[in-house]
Amino acid sequence: MATANQPPVLPVTQPGAAAGVTPQQATFWLLYGKSQDAFNLALAQKRPWAEMADRSQLAKPESFSEAVTRARKNWYYFRINYSLVLVGAVALSLVLHPGSLFFLAALLAGWTYLYLVRSEPLVAFGRTFTEREVFLGMSVFTVIMVFMTNVGSILISALIIGAAICFAHGAYRVPDDLFLDEQEASGGFLSFLSSGSVPQVMARV
């Protein structure tokens, strides 16, 4: 019983409980926000496509080592553009194979239900699964289904084709007019992973 000198004890609620947000939903939206920030930062570093397609800077390399050196320098400078080329190659391959696109959409729907729609613990075969078990089980299921079907081969083929296009452009474009400091070269799509917040968030799953 509280005395006159003691302040009343207020009930403590978990963050997001009043709004009906589950921990997995809060984790998803936190990761989504950080990914969106990283994506916007990466797009801000994208080079003009006209500069990338400048024919006056194209020349055949004299040796394979020179081609590799050119490709490495051009990758640091055009890394966002090259990443978009890879994404475009994957997207085009999925559009040309609607069955694989439907399969990936079904997997995405499963992840969406488990981490955005579901609010109660998952119960199957008379057993209640923890959030970590659901995450690990869904991850293993996704990897197995992708590589047991033609989806994995389609994605790998698209990435190989996209990488070949990027390497060919990087090998034939003379990078003498490109200037990029070391600090800028270390950035990119996944630069936000260098912070310790994402591993801490994933540890809660």
Automatic annotation (TrEMBL):
Pfam families: PRA1
Entries under InterPro entries matching the protein: Prenylated_rab_accept_PRA1
UniProt topology in membrane: Multi-pass membrane protein
Primary location recorded for the protein, binned into one broad class: membrane
Transmembrane segments: 76-95, 154-172
UniProt keywords, alphabetically: Membrane, Transmembrane, Transmembrane helix, Transport
GO terms under biological process: vesicle-mediated transport
This protein's record includes keyword tRNA processing: no
Location within or outside the cell: Membrane
Domain of life: Eukaryota
Keyword Hydrolase in record: no
GO cellular component assignments: endoplasmic reticulum; Golgi apparatus; membrane
Assigned protein family: Belongs to the PRA1 family.
Protein function: May be involved in both secretory and endocytic intracellular trafficking in the endosomal/prevacuolar compartments.
Name of the molecule in the record: PRA1 family protein
Species whose genome carries this gene: Physcomitrium patens (Spreading-leaved earth moss)
Gene behind the chain: LOC112288040
